[in-house]
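## retry 2 of 3
previous attempt timed out at serialization; input unchanged, resubmitting
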Amino acid sequence: MTVLTVLLSVSFFSIIGLGLYLTLHPQKLMPNIPSWVKSSVIVNLAFFALGVAGLLFVGLNETMAAAETVAETREISIGLGLALIGVGLPTGLATIGAGIAVSSVGSASLAVITEKPELFGRTLVYLGLAEGIAIYGLVVSILLLGKI
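## retry succeeded, writing output
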């Protein structure tokens, strides 16, 4: 565990050091980027990926080794797992739809407000209706969660 912490710490501090160097000496790297910068970024990414993968592996082993965790995982069946995924789907899909709606309504309302500022109130109502889609998905998920 300490080796993984050292890997992540070295990666973190070397990224900070590289950022400070590039901030203090930007004119040295403008014409072309030296090879040591590219290799240090690759080494940092490798250290970080190894550290995170190691922490996940160690954490998973410690979690699965606990007796109460093993007993709880046996209670969850495939049907219950699929039901929980089905409970989360309405919220996820509704928020994606609300994001799409808010993006188009928001851009259209900005265009309308620049031409006619007196229509600001109406555009807020339309934007609120688009955001309501996400709330409907959340309500459906809460109702479905109560049925499990």
